Amino acid sequence: MKKIVFLFAVLGCVSISAQHLSMQEAVDIALKKNFDIIVSRSQAEINKFNNTKGNAGMLPTVGLQTTGDASYDQVYQKQSSGVINKYPSQFNTDLGANAMLSWTLFDGGRMFITKNKLSEIQSLGELQFRSRVLDVTYQVIAAYFDIVCQKEQLKSIGEVINYNRQREAIAQTGFNAGTMAKTELLQTQIDLNVAMETAINQQHAIDVARKELNTLLGRDPDTAVEVTDTIPFASVPEKNVVMQKLEISNTDLLTLKKQIDVAELSMKEAQKNSAPNLHFNGGYSFSMGTHSQGSLQNEHSNGILVGATLSIPIYSAGETKRKVSVARTELEIAQSNLDQTRLEINKEMQNAYSDFESQQELLNIERKNNLLSKENLEISLQRLGLGQTTSLEVHQAQENYAQSSLRLINFQYNLKMAETKLRQMVSDL
Description:
Blueprint: H1 2-17, E1 19-20, H2 23-33, H3 35-50, E2 61-78, E3 84-106, H4 110-177, H5 182-216, E4 225-226, H6 239-249, H7 251-271, E5 277-291, E6 298-311, H8 319-385, H9 391-425
Helix pairs in contact: 2-4, 3-4, 4-5, 4-7, 4-9, 6-8, 7-8, 8-9
């Protein structure tokens, strides 16, 4: 008795000291701190950073270059006229600077295709991030209600312990009165100890489930947390409604469709490799030099450079054709992946909906069965107290009630997870 009271007193203290966390609060924390979401968000931001006109080659580039030289020379010059110039200690300095602008004016429209491709890649990254958010949200909901399920099982075990205590008291009274064999008293004590062991193991399962949830929330696994006491009622839209939403809202399908768009643009991009390119070049240059000896003491020059370059690909050793073939094949692969995934998701949705309906029926049946098994156990205990049955019958009735309670809790959890899976598939979490 003291061990039982101590065990549940400890569990009660843990619940009181732990921070209460609703399911929505858990999801909100995960959206901010889950490491998978953080990485996925960063990857989406990289695609956003890359989506610029400059990266597509639509804007000019400007560069500035400066030079500076100094020299100390000994110069000997003999001209054709026979004149000889000697400069035994000539000091020279040369300074220069130039700014150059390069701008692709025409490349067959390739730069515009590239810009569209970068926009599609950015949208693809956003879809992949959204898909990752849904995955993590599903995991958080599963982990959260797993704790609720484990706690309900512990509560059920507590009921079993209470019935065991009643059995032990009846058996002890019967043994003291000489109307019940000691073996029946020993069996009740054995069953009580087993139930206590089960409670300890169940508390460990709760601790493990809490650590799993905290890890998904991106915080210390040992953080104390308390969840709700019940699994809320599960409901989903009609099957036809879910089917209609699947094609337009499922992130896996939308991602694959976007990959097809990117592949189509990649093929068009590769086809433009054979188009002529016209580049505009412009610049300004300045140079200045000084000489300590000689006929030329100082010099400087400056000017503007304007020009254009036209390049026409004539032969590329089949490189353009190869790139187009590769891009076309990647497009076909993306289309095949979409068709295959569409079938898989339809099958998964059908299974999830069937699972939801099955778990709903099982839950309704088990609720009735749980009431019957509980009533049967209480009647058996009354009969045991009146000496009208044996401890073995009560043990069997108790076992039936314990198993029914476990099934009832699991059906509730499975039903909630079936609902969550369906909502994840239509991006409704």
